[in-house]
Amino acid sequence: VNDRRLMDAQVQALGAPAEKRGEIFHLIDRRDKLRPEDWEAYALESGLTREQLEQLKGMLEDPELWRKSPELCRFFAALDALGVRDYVQFAAGVIRGLDYYTGTVFEAREREEGGRAILGGGRYDNLVSDVGGQPVNAVGYAMGDVMLSLVLKKYGLMPTGAPSPAPVLVTVFDESRVVNALAMATRLREAGLNVTSFNEAVKLPKQLKYADKIGARIVVLAGPDEEAAGQVTVKDLARHEQVTVARDALVETVQQMLATPAGT
What we know:
Blueprint: E1 2-3, H1 4-13, H2 21-29, H3 36-45, H4 50-60, H5 70-82, E2 104-109, E3 117-124, H6 127-130, E4 138-143, H7 145-154, E5 168-170, H8 178-190, E6 195-197, H9 204-214, E7 218-221, H10 224-229, E8 231-236, E9 241-246, H11 250-259
Parallel strand pairs: 5-6, 5-7
Antiparallel strand pairs: 1-2, 2-3, 3-4, 7-8, 8-9
């Protein structure tokens, strides 16, 4: 994963003219597709000086560069809360060649050395309006379904049936509590529960409506009052009941509710 805003700032620091930044992004995107000597020759032919080229190489090989990006710092904090940080790494060379990307960009590959690419994409804030639509922020990606099937078969992970809907929804009270909500969802998943979490801080009625739409029975809520008391509220939508319990009792409470028949 990478972020175009971070890379734009870094390329600007090289002293490259604004009109050359697009070319430098294309240069970065081609690094893994050319032999090192050919890539360096291509960079110099594109107008970079030897000094700028060395600075660019150092930037691309810096594994801690992401710490200069507030967006990526928040992103990796969310991954930590979800318990999936080990599956994602920063790569300055992931830039995506298309010019319409404006924020986070990503690629998914097998973890083994030289693993095959499965998908790639990113955030674009201006693409819809550029083609005549209403301005809207979006994230999109392209995925190779055949490649995904090959990878799943290789590791014996091809699904044998349709997954059941998640019976538990963890809500998000406000923007400052997104990471806490992700952490609660992770604790429930680690206990073997099928859980989904709302992906943005919107009004609670909208989140409850979503819970009803996906067939979730249990809704977990934690606002400022619960947080201050070290507690969490758990609602059983099927039985129209709710309890507020200590945060440490969350998993046990949800398990007990799910074990109780909805009609009793």
